[in-house]
Specification:
This protein is an all-alpha fold. It contains 16 helices and no strands. Its main location: membrane.
Amino acid sequence: MYNYINIFFVALKLGLLSFGGPTAHLGYFYDEYVKKRKWLDEKEYSDLVALCQFLPGPASSQVGIGIGTIRGGIGGGIISFIGFTLPSVIILMIFSTLFTNSDASFTWLQGLKLVAVAIVAQAIIGMGKKLTNTKTTIILALFVLILSLLIDNLYIQVIALLITGVYGLIFLKQTSTDRIKIKRKSFKLPKKLGFISLSLFFLLLTVLPIVSSVTNNLWLKMFDSFYRSGSLVFGGGHVVLPLLKNEFVPQGLISPDNFITGYAAAQAVPGPLFTFASYIGMTIAGFGGGLLATIAIFLPAFLLLFGILPFWDAIKSNTYAEGFLKGISAGVVGILIAALYNPIWTSTIKSDLDFVLASSLFILLMYFKLPSWSIVLIGIILGVLFY
């Protein structure tokens, strides 16, 4: 019991202090878990980070779950996740309540929307350098960008990503030079758990859309949408933005303004960006909706991590898996660029002043290396002063 309590409070401390996005989170984790507490050594940590970067889902959250699992088994993984995620979930659900249930004019929130422009633009540049560094991967990103913006279909982005993944599986497997090399296995989970977790992951991914469409139940539709979004995110938490936008904005469940405002607010809090789902769920259906959204969007991360850990040594050496991931990763950049334009840019940049302020925030973030929490604070101040 003491071990579980210790795991929880260490993760809670990180959940309160970990600003700056997934890459920064991994730095916080390294300092706390490897350097300070020595819960695992550097090789074990690098093994875990490599695995979580290979899987779809929120990489930093999966690393936290993995560390908890190494320290305290499956229960430790769950407790570590709760501690790290709880602060941002609570803050964003409270923000949703104050924002959506108030008649006051929150003109300063335009500043948060400007922050979203700057942060997503920075994410595109950072990811583009790593994931679209050849003519082929640039064309794949452009292909997904075109389809995402010109075809009005709920599943077009998923279809486009699958196409780029298949292309990568066939044509990119021989060009991959960044093979993930893991020297030893640090995770002792039974293969039976792996089979059960992976079976449940694919069962839910297949059955939920069918059941939700047949029953037309809001709660089932929400669970399906959040679960599917959490299952298809490659390349970091920012990618969940366009997926959630496609699931909820066109259906009128959340307005574009509320959506962008919530996404901008998610930048202001520490912890995983996936808790943006908590804000959306709370806005649509109150506390129950926020809780359901949080569980649904993170559930794939658990199922995939517990499903792959027992088989990772075999998977990591598969060149076809590498090619598939490389193709999808290039497509992710196209999705992000499409999301930067619609809905972020189209609903935020409506005047010269908007463009000037968003550009200033971007420069402070990208070139002056100000932390994201300070950019959020500056954005709010700009909103108060100019709007």
